[in-house]
Design brief:
- This protein is α+β, with helices and mostly antiparallel strands.
- It has one domain: 2-Layer Sandwich (60s Ribosomal Protein L30, Chain: A).
- Helix content is about 25%, strand content about 35%.
- A five-stranded mixed beta sheet has the order 1-2-7-5-6. A two-stranded antiparallel sheet has the order 3-4.
- Strand 1 and strand 2 form a beta hairpin.
- Helix 1 packs across helix 4.
- The protein starts with a strand and ends with a strand.
Length: about 150
């Protein structure tokens, strides 16, 4: 059994609950700033159509991977590996490096979009994610690898 001990909990790496590869260009989710509608006086939050489509794709693919176990109600660990589309020059020269990944998009904004998409699919609420590991790399094939693990105390 592989174990990582940190703080007061133990992550049992042998207890992967679900894993999925979602192909496509990962989309960032920034902070939503509500706009007050002039007609209704209510706060309205807009999201881009690209963000909505990405979140829908992530949710649909993730739902397939948890059909047998269902939505988790306890604490979970999420591992994300974002594969950002490499440029044509990087691919032609064979220069897909860690340095090329250290550019926009921001990893935390990529995480936010995926964690929100997984709410109601992998877990009831993203507040249940008590451990989060995220990586960002450049690749010829864009997408995100997602894995969910149990966290034991």
């Amino acid at each position: 059994m592989n174990r990582i001990i940190g703080g007061e909990h133990v992550l049992n790496l042998d207890r992967m609950l679900a894993s999925v590869w979602v192909k496509g260009d990962p989309v960032t989710q920034g902070s939503f700033n509500p706009i007050i509608s002039k007609s209704t006086g209510r706060a309205v939050i807009f999201q881009t159509s690209k963000l909505k489509a990405w979140r829908d794709t992530v949710a649909q693919e993730a739902a397939i991977s948890v059909r047998k176990i269902g939505v988790q109600t306890g604490p979970v660990m999420i591992w994300l590996q974002f594969m950002i589309q490499a440029t044509q020059i990087e691919m032609r020269r064979g220069e897909i490096t860690l340095e090329s990944a250290a550019k926009k998009p921001d990893a935390d904004k990529l995480e936010r979009a995926v964690l929100d998409a997984l709410s109601g699919v992998y877990y009831k609420d993203d507040a249940q994610v008590i451990d989060l590991v995220a990586q960002k790399r450049r690749s010829e094939v864009p997408g995100v690898h997602i894995a969910m693990y149990t966290v034991l105390y």
